[in-house]
Amino acid sequence: MGHKNKLSVIAVLLTLFICGTMLMEHWKSQNAAVETILYWGSTGSKVMEVQRKLKQWGYYDGPIDGIYGAKTFEAVKLFQRKNGLKVDGGVGPQTAAALGITLNDTSTSYQPSRGGGTSSSGDLYLLARLVHAEARGEPYIGKVAVAAVVLNRVKHPAFPNTIAGVIYQPGAFTAVTDGQINLAPDEEALRAARDALNGWDPTYGALYYYNPAKTTSSWIWSRPVHIVIGNHRFAK
Amino acid sequence: MIRWMLTIVLAVALIAVGLWGYNQYLQNMEYRNYIENLYQKSFFELVGQIGDIDTKLSKLMVSGDQSQSMVLLAEVWRQADAAQVNLGQLPLGHLSLIKTSKFINQLADYCYYLTKKVGQDRTISLEEMDKLQKLRNNCAQLNEELKVLVDNLNSGGVKWGEIRQAKIKQELNEKAENLIEQQFIKIERTGIDYPTLIYDGPFSETLQQRKDIRIQGEAIDQKKAQEIAADFVGRARVGEVNDGPETTADIETWGVYIKPKDGNGTIFVSVSKKGGKVVNMISDGEIKSAKLSLEEAQDRAERFLAQKGYSSMIPTYSQKFDGTLVINFAYKQGDVIVYPDLIKVKVSLEDGSIVGFDARNYLIAHKERDIDPPKLSLEEARKLVNPNLKVKSEGLAIIPTESGGERLCYEFKGEYGGDNFIVYIDANNGKEVNILKIIDTGDGTLVI
Question: Does B246 lie at the interface with A, CB-CB under 8 angstroms?
């Protein structure tokens, strides 16, 4: 009974030991790969850090310029001698540890983007919803034109500078005011929004559109009309 | 007995309805307050920001130090940007805000431009200082008017929510009946004399009134336009040809609707009234399945362009969606890629037919350019690229500037940490002009 117990304890310890060594090895090899050593001729912010520390502790009286020159070299040697380190004038892991700095930047490695510009697909959907709500039943180019007006507004100084800003500007679109914008867009509205985002603009820079049968504003009638598509007049 | 019962039932019903109604009323009030508060927040933030901009611009007038000026300019730019957002949230008609909005946007943009300029170690010119002074005066005036508005709001008890409701009723009606709106319209009309700003930025006046359209040639009539459109789409594809809407914008065009023989959707083609060039074409036909590879599609587009007489066009980037591939072609003059001369071609991946075409940029911008040899050599420019970027290809390119100008640059395509970038170095002064990031969506590339 006791014998069996002992055996299993040993087995567990052995496994732990093996796993531990493997992890250690892994960790070591990873670290070794990115280990940096500062030496004569090195430059950069890490050198400045070293200089700052050495100056603080009175080993160094040169400028903190990030250039590992003769003065820094001598100062490091002095520091190493005083602290019982191997005197080689370079800042390796041991010297760095004694100085209280780390040589590796663990936080600064660049993470590549995945899947790309998701923000643009958000804009696409919002634009498609507006097209769907404002131009249902209009011919296809009439839909592209509505989307193009939104994009022309974004580029124009007299309007907000984002797609959402233009669409949700109070009173700008009836479909937003009455909530129809929240309907799910159909496939055609999505395609029209996409064509507009790709640069197709049947209105040639129009900023407004209106239905002449429903509009009473005299101001809007005074604007130069670029094109009439379906029920909408597109004007600038 | 029955009467009693009825009375009780009715009384209970009345109380229930009353409670329900009261509850609704409370909820309504809550929403109303909530919206009112949002409007108030936007408005008071706007007032604060305009005041702050006023101060910062005044300080700029007496600042004698470049780095200090830069900080102030950046502050104005940031505040003006935020002010623009707040202004866009107020429930006022667009008409009462046009000028104010334009002013704030241009101010932000102008200060951004000057920040960049100072950042490049160039000084603000006397003329620019004068413009800033004018803008400052405008800002002070706007600030004054806004103060009147604040007083009115505080004393008169006008509520934003009420303005919003009135607005919905009148729609785009010009008559404004409320105090706040009147005040804004007064600001618009009492001619704050905003200066015309021409500089290198997207809201520069030059861009807003560009009229250098290059399409030349004989005027054509609508019948001729129909023929040109039918030829362009390809006679074999054309079923029925009809008149479409014409445009009277910077490029005047005839519109032509074409019903394809296969009955799939409608193709709209617009043909310039001068010269008879096809400016753009859109098809709304449905695409059911993608059979072609991207290479095949690109090949089709290239052949199409060559066939239509657009020679020396090279594909720059492309994107795939909904069974189509949109390819951007740029003109190549000698060994220089000319990006402003842009043509977009959309190819159906089902049968390889051309379902979209847009040559507006090309028609506006295209000409044979006199390209002077660059002052910098490729080697010199390469040294200016951040060494982090692993350069994979390089060459000369003309790129459009924000204000519609052109600039000769070295183009370096490269990779950093798994992402792809294009870096542009000015071929004459070595400045890094632009960085584009290429986003690979798996369906072709998107450049931002």
Answer: yes
Query: Per-residue confidence at B8, pLDDT binned at 50, 70, 90?
Result: very high
Q: How far apart are CA A79 and CA A65, in angstroms?
A: 19
Q: Where are the domains of chain B?
A: 21-208, 222-365, 378-447
A185 interface with B at CB cutoff 8 Å: no
Instruction: Decide if A210 is inside a domain.
Output: no
Q: In this complex, do B95 and A219 lie within 8 Å of one another by their Cβ atoms?
A: yes
Sequence-separated (6 or more) residues with CB below 8 Å from residue A168: A176
Distance between A226 CA and the closest CA of chain B, angstroms? 5
Of the residues B284, B358, B437, the best mutation for testing chain A's interface (the one with the most A CB atoms within 10 Å of its CB) is: B284
Shared domain check, A127 and A194: yes
CA distances from B239 to A67, B259, B264, B365, B423 (A): 76, 5, 11, 34, 47
Residues of A in contact with B106 (CB under 8 A): 157
Check residue B7 and give its pLDDT.
92
Q: Letter for the amino acid at B96?
A: S
Query: What per-residue confidence (pLDDT) applies to B336?
Result: 92
> What average pLDDT does this structure show over A221-230?
86
Domain that holds residue A133: 118-203
Q: Which residues of A touch B250 (CB under 8 A)?
A: 204-205
Is B168 touching A (CB cutoff 8 A)? yes
- DSSP character string of A181-210: GGSPP-HHHHHHHHHHHTT--TTSS--EEE
On whether residue A75 sits in a domain, the answer given is: yes
* Helix, strand or coil, per DSSP, at residue A83: coil
The number of folded domains in chain A is 2
Q: Report yes or no: A42 at the B interface, CB cutoff 8 Å.
A: no
Question: B332 CB near a chain A CB, below 8 Å?
Answer: no
Could you report the predicted ipTM of this complex, rounded to two decimals?
0.81
Q: Are A195 and A156 within one domain?
A: yes
A39 and A74 in a single domain? The answer is yes
Do B344 and A199 count as a contact with CB atoms less than 8 A apart? yes
Least confident of A2-11, B119-128, B241-250: A2-11
CATH number among 3.10.450, 3.20.20, 3.40.50, 1.10.287, domain B378-447: 3.10.450
Shortest distance between the Cα of A159 and any Cα of chain B, in A, equals 6
pLDDT digits (tens, 9 = 90+) for A140-198: 999 999 999 999 998 888 888 888 889 988 878 888 888 888 888 888 898 899 889 88
Cβ contact B205:B131 at 8 Å: no
CA angle B274, B277, B282 (to 5 degrees): 125
- pLDDT tens, residue by residue, A38-51: 888 787 777 888 88
Given an 8 Å threshold on Cβ–Cβ distance, is A116 in contact with B440?
yes
Tens of pLDDT along B182-229?
Answer: 666 666 665 556 666 666 655 565 555 555 566 778 888 888 899 899
pTM value surpassing 0.95: no
Question: Are residues A42 and A80 part of one domain?
Answer: yes
Domain end among A56, A71, A102: A102
The CA-based diameter of chain A, rounded to the nearest angstrom, is 102
The mean per-residue pLDDT over the stretch B410-420 comes to 87
Q: What are phi and psi of B195, to 5 degrees?
A: -70, 155
Q: How far is B16 from chain A (nearest CA, A)?
A: 30
So what's the pLDDT on residue A199?
84
- The CATH number that applies at residue A53 is 1.10.101.10
Q: Answer whether A144 touches B (CB < 8 Å).
A: yes
Please check whether residue A214 lies inside any domain of the structure. no
Q: Tell if the CB–CB gap between A194 and B266 is shorter than 8 Å.
A: no
Cβ <8 Å between A229 and B245:
yes
* Contact A139/B at CB under 8 A: yes
Cα A11 from chain centroid? 49
Mark yes or no for CB contact A115/B441 under 8 Å.
Answer: yes
Residue A80 lies in a domain: yes
**Residue A223 confidence (pLDDT) above 80:** yes
